[in-house]
Amino acid sequence: MNSNLPRATQLVREAISAPSSDTAAAVVQALNAAGLLADPERSYGMLLRRTPSGWTPSDQPLTELEEQALAWDASCQHARQVATTVEALLKGSPEFLRVQVDGDRLIVSLHITDQAQWAGWRQYFAVQHEPNRKLPHVQAGEGYRDGVRVTLLGYDMPQAQADAAARAKQPYEFDGIVYDLARPLRDANGGIWHHQGEREDGMPLLSLAGRMERCSLANTVWQAGPLTPVSDTPSTQVNPVIEQGVGGEAA
């Protein structure tokens, strides 16, 4: 049974018993004042406000604080959706540890055994190198994915970087990655680059096999990275997500 019927019946009785020149108008006004009549000019939605007696209907517009609360709820919901997508993608990678939702942001944890893994996922999450966030056993960085802020944690990345530096005959660190300039480097598209001297500021210059033009290491990494030594196995050369051309948002 419609729970409004007892209230409507009471209002009709009160309106009929009250002195009025138009009983029907009195009944209609009483029902409308109680919110029991539909108004085609008004939205079907109803704003509820918390009061000491519970939630009650309100015709007042949202306050700034209420708008902020609704925006926060929407941001958190979006973060959970992105987390589901990211976790489904990462679960196929051997470096995956976990994806955590922290309010409207994500914390993605990886176990890094090769620098190429870190470089690939940094590109996917648009993470900039932050040298001051390097601890003995973990490297951290901040980025974004689908509009959601991401904290990326690379466990054992410092050790992977140290191992690469120890193996390199001509090590050069750029943007948190150690490159061996004595070895050809393969880009994400399969192109092979060779070290061809340095600029005046010390930045290494590379040339694509078979071409005379030289490009700085920085530009090569930015346009065609990540770069890996050609003797690395395919599984550690490039992150498969990057190979598929899936990019990240600008941080």
* Rg on CA atoms, Å: 31 Å
Assembly type of the shown chains? single chain
Helix content: 25-40%
Given the helix and strand composition, which structural class is it?
alpha+beta
Shape: rod-shaped
Please count the beta strands (DSSP E, at least 2 residues each): 13
Stretches where pLDDT is under 50 for at least 5 consecutive residues are: 233-251
Largest sheet: 5 strands, antiparallel
Number of helices: 8
Percent of sequence in beta strands? 25-35%
What features would you describe in this structure?
The chain has helices at residues 5-17, 23-33, 64-90, 115-124, 157-167, 217-224, 234-237, 240-243, and strands at 47-51, 54-58, 96-102, 105-111, 138-145, 148-155, 171-174, 177-180, 185-186, 192-198, 204-208, 215-216, 228-229. With 251 residues, it is of the alpha+beta class. A five-stranded antiparallel β-sheet has the order 12-11-10-9-13. A hairpin with a 2-residue loop joins strand 3 (96-102) and strand 4 (105-111). The longest helix has 27 residues, at 64-90. The chain is rod-shaped. It starts with a helix and ends in an 8-residue tail after the last helix. The model is unreliable at 233-251 (pLDDT under 50).
